[in-house]
């Protein structure tokens, strides 16, 4: 729903999910706070395998498929190895490339901390109507 009309697949089904409301937002808002490392204090660059930790800049490729409607971080890059665009868009998935600073997100009930994205800036986006079949 980035710069385009809402599609039927972007709307919650009122028969099965009456408690869910559709909200229009930007990719920056959606991926800010998104956990990038479920159990580690660092992430590795997809291009060179260098470790990146809290406070360092990263470029992240994130996507959301139509079903399930959840965002996922697929690749993380250091600034030197980051691509400039979504290289191979996938039909039916919203994909974005963002730069961000790694921060910490706390889960007090579990007494854990996870790396997340902060200070997010959008570099490129591919809507679900563009690309090739998966």
What does this structure look like?
- With 134 residues, the chain is mainly beta.
- The protein has one domain.
- Helix content is 4%, strand content 41%.
- The protein has one helix and seven strands.
- The protein has one helix at residues 27-31; strands spanning 35-37, 42-44, 51-53, 57-65, 71-77, 93-107, 112-126.
- It has a five-stranded antiparallel beta sheet with strand order 1-7-6-4-5. Strands 2-3 form a two-stranded antiparallel sheet.
- Strand 2 and strand 3 form a beta hairpin.
- It is globular, with a radius of gyration of 16 Å.
- The model has no long low-confidence stretch (mean pLDDT 84).
Keywords:
mainly beta, five-stranded antiparallel beta sheet
In short:
The protein has 134 residues and is mainly β.
What is the CA–CA distance across the termini? 19 Å
Unreliable residue runs: none
Q: What topology, given as strand order, has the largest sheet?
A: 1-7-6-4-5
Overall tally of domains? 1
Biggest sheet descriptor: 5 strands, antiparallel
Shape: globular
Order of helices and strands: HEEEEEEE
Number of helices: 1
CA gyration radius, whole angstroms: 16 Å
Mean pLDDT, rounded to whole units?
84
Query: Helical residue percent?
Result: under 10%
Which structural class matches the secondary elements? Answer: mainly beta
Approximate strand percentage: 35-45%
**What's the total number of strands?**
7
Give the SSE map.
Elements (H helix, E strand, L loop, with lengths): L26 H5 L3 E3 L4 E3 L6 E3 L3 E9 L5 E7 L15 E15 L4 E15 L8
Antiparallel strand pairs: 1-7, 2-3, 4-5, 4-6, 6-7
